[in-house]
């Protein structure tokens, strides 16, 4: 049985038994926060529990490493929509220890791409088009510095209101312990 078949069989029962009712909420985050975090599978349930969040409390945006790579890319667009349309007034960037992006080998990824059918000439075309695959796929060596960099990118974005607090945290995926890297409230006090 395929994973899609398993999902669809389960979903049919889920809907028929009205299991969705316990998750009913609105599109607006109850706690008025948006979280940018990593897509790591260990964080799916751990992060919300560690932050005392339930369904409907926060907008959660996930990407590899919680890294803002472009000031006008999809991640920033999602944050801006959460702030301007969905009533979020605080942003949390949450990185984690033992992140795969801290040890990423771009040559290995490119090798895997070629092995799975991407034409090697495509990388020459991309380079000619100004795309530096090494830079684009690169992760980070220090999660604390990476979180600070993403916080700065959000906090200093020309479209983020100055009254939006931007916080940076790092979570331990083994036990859920959160460490504050950037306190957005303190940053607000300093800038006023």
Automatic annotation (TrEMBL):
Its EC number is 4.2.1.1. It catalyses: hydrogencarbonate + H(+) = CO2 + H2O. Gene3D superfamilies: Carbonic anhydrase (3.40.1050.10). Its cofactor is Zn(2+). It comes from the Bacteria. Pfam families: Pro_CA. Keywords: Metal-binding, Zinc. The keyword Manganese does not apply. Belongs to the beta-class carbonic anhydrase family. This is carbonic anhydrase.
